């Protein structure tokens, strides 16, 4: 449980750092694509995991 808790913080901090870096360098299109893509892929992975869990 500790690994998952700490892993969540490091994953989010990396996402936040990369997003801020893109914003600071005025790469707004890339920032939007990165943020939207990360959230979208995360949601798809979560739904896929829940869907697969029904068969186990």
TrEMBL record:
Pfam families associated with the record: CRCB
Catalysed reactions, semicolon-separated: fluoride(in) = fluoride(out)
Transmembrane stretches, start-end: 28-53
Domain of life according to the entry: Bacteria
InterPro entries found in the cross-reference section: FluC
Subcellular location: Cell membrane
Topology within the bilayer: Multi-pass membrane protein
Keywords per UniProt: Cell inner membrane, Cell membrane, Ion channel, Ion transport, Membrane, Transmembrane, Transmembrane helix, Transport
Family as reported in the entry's similarity comment: Belongs to the fluoride channel Fluc/FEX (TC 1.A.43) family.
Function description: Important for reducing fluoride concentration in the cell, thus reducing its toxicity.
Name of the featured protein: Fluoride-specific ion channel
Annotated source species: Hymenobacter humi
